[in-house]
């Protein structure tokens, strides 16, 4: 099945060998596995803090820029 099909079917064919947690795609398993290995390949150039995946680094960078891309509707 393709990645999109796993999302719709709810199947999680990729399982972590360390803890048994399962995932819909291999990339999610890869980033999860970094929790066990301690690998944090994405580092903030401003403060040196490191992250297991690119999206976490992108969110973190907003702290330094002051950018607030999300709007609260309440």
UniProtKB/TrEMBL annotation:
GO MF annotations for this entry?
DNA-binding transcription factor activity, RNA polymerase II-specific; RNA polymerase II transcription regulatory region sequence-specific DNA binding; zinc ion binding
Return the InterPro entries for the record: C2H2-ZF_Transcription_Reg, Znf_C2H2_sf, Znf_C2H2_type
Q: Which segments constitute the C2H2-type domain? A: 14-41, 42-69
User: In its keyword annotation, does this UniProt entry include Repeat?
Assistant: yes
GO cellular component terms, alphabetically, are: nucleus
Alphabetic keyword roster? Metal-binding, Repeat, Zinc, Zinc-finger
Return the SUPFAM superfamilies for the record.
Answer: beta-beta-alpha zinc fingers
PANTHER family documented for this protein:
ODD-SKIPPED - RELATED (PTHR14196), ZINC FINGER PROTEIN 208-LIKE (PTHR14196:SF12)
- Please state what the protein is called: ZN154 protein
Give the source species: Sakesphorus luctuosus
